[in-house]
Hints:
Shape: globular
Mean pLDDT: 93
Distance between the termini: 37 Å
Amino acid sequence: xxxxxxFDHPLxxxxxxxxxxxxxxxxxxxxxxxxxxxxxxxxxTRDLETQEVDVxxxxxxxxxxxxxxxxxxxxxxxxxxxxxxxxxxxxxxxxKVGHIxxxxxxxxxxxxxYYCKLPADSTEREILVVDPMLATGGSASxxxxxxxxxxxxxxxxxxxxxxxxxxxxxxxxxxxxxxxxAALDDHLNExxxxxxxxxxxxxxxxxxx
Length: 209
């Protein structure tokens, strides 16, 4: 079973409270999402492997630690996931970026992939899938399956807010994918929105309705 990590860092919680406010405008919402993305990736990569290296300082040779093993890639689920990418890249500038887009078939109600472009060496990387909201879990589960179908097996999911229904769906479909969230909210309403949530993250991010 995958682990679910809820970040209780005061800075994350403070910024999230402002994002939830219906009076927060597009500019501030966008900036806060980027900032929280940066803080979340800092915490979510805490267990990355490092190796000892010798570094020549101006004084002497020092034993230091540098990242080892797999490099990182960030894959936003379009479109709201785009708001978290710059935050990740601020912390890990060398990370490569992929994109995945889905829509729900109106007849079958199943997610359909309309775009997926991953780094050429993505199978050798640790993949961070980012999307602000984990509601039903349908889109996240499908996106991760599409990524797995391309040979990627080292995947983590980062969400700003999750509903219990989405977490349950993810753990059932992908028990090997750990989930990192800033808040676990109460439930989904009859329209599929997270309660209390923050509304439609994509609309608030891009100023659309």
